[in-house]
Write a structure and sequence with these properties.
Elements lengths: L2 H13 L5 H10 L3 H4 L1 H24 L6 H24 L3 H25 L8 H17 L2 H22 L4 H17 L3 H21 L5 H16 L3 H26 L12 H18 L5 H8 L14 H26 L2 H23 L5 H26 L9
Protein name: Membrane protein
InterPro entries: DUF2157
Keywords: Membrane, Transmembrane, Transmembrane helix
Length: about 400
């Protein structure tokens, strides 16, 4: 059932007083949109148009040297204009799938045209400005049509362009980062949805990491970025931001704790540099205090335990044996994953339980590797490890099913 048609025709019935506006709303709600029912069929035109576009561009690229320069320019303009025109025609006719597909190809051909024309006229790039220009039509169609495909394309162009800038020019593009924040961040702020918010958080984290690598800043500052994400999630009002920031902040903190445990218990400390205490600790204390204040009306002791994953215990290697500090990180990770499981079971929160199970199994796996790798025969090591993980996972999954047997609150 096409809901657009139903609303349009239904409004005429309301105007003619055949039905009331309340009855129209009930009729529209009763029949799901055909767009939702035919999602698989909507993917096929997109894939078909992408393959056709790739074929056309590949043919042009393979015969590029045989085409005169002005003919190259005209050919690229015709192809790009054709894609955009076809996209707008199909969109106006109500065929959003084909319209989106051709507009997507128009954006791709625009970027390819910039690259190929640069080669034709021997233009050399000194930064990632190409990707800024390439992202502009994608941003336009993103805010005009609000399609996930355009959102993904903008994210790929901006984050991929940043990666290209890092690998080819060894520099961080602040302009591209600004475009990412304004376009992707602005869209997520205006139209918050779970998938887009998660992609924005991943892209932001990737760009911050690339910035630290490019400027040769100690990577332990990324650990602090995880805490800032987590804290921002505590203060965010919209649930999509809370979930994305808390989840990815937690994953960053846990990943660093995981790496620090492995690093400190395996004698890899010869090149281990610590961030400057005078800068790092004040920022950490401010974020830690902000996180505590955001949860001031809840169980404070429980919240402090949750924040232990972000505490910079690595400074203790100045006054203690690194092995002890590594074991401390292992204890913190066990505590954190156990608390997440307990909290998930208590609140009957399925995503939290699943994340807690994954983190708990990862900690068990790392502890098992460090304990048994040196003295146990490798065949027995892997066999026993797999059996133990299967048993532990089966126990946790059974516990989860018992907790959620009545459905629980739908926090998925």
């Amino acid at each position: 059932m096409n809901q657009k048609w139903m609303k349009s025709e239904g409004q005429k019935w309301v105007d003619e007083k055949i039905i009331s506006s309340e009855q129209l709303d009930l009729l529209v709600a009763r029949y799901p949109s055909s767009n939702e029912q035919n999602k698989p069929s909507r993917v096929l035109p997109i894939l078909a148009s992408i393959l056709i576009g790739i074929g056309i561009l590949s043919f042009i690229a393979s015969n590029w040297s045989e085409i005169p320069p002005l003919a190259r320019l005209a050919l690229l303009l015709v192809i790009m204009t054709g894609f955009y025109t076809a996209g707008d025609v199909f969109t106006k006719r109500g065929n959003d799938s084909l319209g989106t597909s051709f507009n997507f190809l128009g954006i791709i051909s625009f970027g390819a045209s910039i690259i190929l024309l640069g080669q034709t006229f021997h233009l050399s790039a000194v930064d990632a400005r190409l990707f800024v220009f390439w992202s502009l039509p994608a941003i336009y169609y993103l805010f005009r049509d609000r399609k996930k495909l355009f959102f993904l394309l903008v994210a790929v162009i901006t984050v991929g362009g940043q990666l290209y800038s890092l690998s080819d020019y060894d520099q961080f593009s602040y302009l591209l980062f600004f475009v990412f924040i304004v376009s992707i961040g602005g869209y997520v702020f205006l139209y918050p949805q779970r998938l887009q918010t998660n992609l924005f958080t991943i892209g932001l984290s990737a760009q911050v990491l690339m910035f630290l690598l490019t400027e040769e800043i100690n990577l332990l500052w990324f650990f602090l970025f995880g805490l800032s994400l987590y804290t921002e999630g505590l203060w965010a009002e919209k649930s999509v931001f809370k979930q994305a920031f808390n989840r990815f902040g937690t994953l960053i903190g846990f990943a660093f704790a995981y790496g620090l445990y492995f690093w400190m218990t395996n004698e890899f400390l010869s090149d281990f540099d610590l961030p400057k205490t005078a800068l790092y600790l004040p920022v950490f204390l401010i974020l830690f205090a902000a996180a505590l204040y955001a949860k001031r009306h809840e169980n404070l002791i429980m919240h402090v335990c949750e924040l232990l994953i972000f505490v910079p215990f690595f400074y203790l290697i100045k006054v203690s044996d690194p092995l002890i500090v590594g074991i401390l990180y292992l204890i913190v990770m066990f505590t954190y994953s156990g608390l997440m499981l307990a909290k998930g079971f208590k609140n009957e929160n399925r995503p939290q339980i699943n994340l807690g199970i994954v983190l708990f199994l990862l900690v068990c796996l790392m502890g098992y590797f460090n304990l048994a790798w040196a003295f146990m025969p490798k065949s027995i090591f892997f066999l026993l490890g797999g059996i133990l993980l299967f048993i532990l996972n089966a126990f946790l999954q059974r516990k989860k099913k018992q907790i959620l047997k009545n459905g629980g609150p739908h926090n998925e």
